[in-house]
C-alpha cells in the first residue's frame, strides 16, 4: 500500500478544518482604530491701500536745479502681515526706468523714491529699484511718504500742467 503524505500535521478533523479555513481566509485582521486630526488656520483681514497726490509745484523751463516734491499714500493692514508697496512706471515711462509727466505730448522727466535722500527708486518687486517692503507690527492705518524729483535742465517744449498716473499696488 502506498502512503500519501499530507502537509497537515496529525490532528483531529475539526482542528484540520480550522487550519485549512485559516489558510484560505488569511490571518485575522487587526483591530480597527480611529483618531482625529485637528486642522486650524488664523484668518486676518486684507490690507487696504489709498493713493495720494504728489504736487511738485512750479518748474521753470530749463531750471538748473532739481525740483523736489513729496506726497503720501495710506495703508491699513492687520498686524504682522508682510506686504510690498509697488509703484509702476506710470502712463508714459521714460528711458532707463525713469518716469514722464506729459502735457500735449511733451514729456517732463521725473522719478519717485522710497527715501528722503532720493537714492532708492520706488518701483516694483525687489532690489535697488523695487517696492517698499513693510511688516507692520501693530494693526491700523499708517502713511508712507513718497519722494519725487524732477531733474534739472529740462525744456519740455511747452508750458502747461504736466501730469502722470502711477499705479500703486500691494503684493
Structure commentary:
With 171 residues, the protein is mainly beta. Helix content is 8%, strand content 30%. The strands form two sheets. It has a six-stranded antiparallel beta sheet, with no helix packed on it. A three-stranded antiparallel beta sheet has the order 7-3-9, with no helix packed on it. The radius of gyration is 37 Å and the shape is elongated. A hairpin with a 5-residue loop joins strand 4 (92-93) and strand 5 (99-103). It has one helix at 13-25, and strands at 48-50, 67-77, 83-87, 92-93, 99-103, 106-113, 132-134, 140-150, 168-170. It starts with 12 loop residues before the first helix and ends with a strand. It is built from one helix and nine strands.
Give keywords:
171 residues, mainly beta, 6-stranded antiparallel beta sheet, 1 helix, 9 strands, elongated
Proportion of strand residues:
25-35%
Number of helices: 1
User: SSE order, as H and E?
Assistant: HEEEEEEEEE
Task: Tell how many strands the DSSP assignment holds.
Answer: 9
Low-confidence segments: none
Fraction of residues in H or I helices: under 10%
Integer-rounded radius of gyration: 37 Å
Question: Strand order across the biggest sheet?
Answer: 1-2-8-6-5-4
Structural class: mainly beta
> What general outline do the C-alpha atoms trace?
elongated
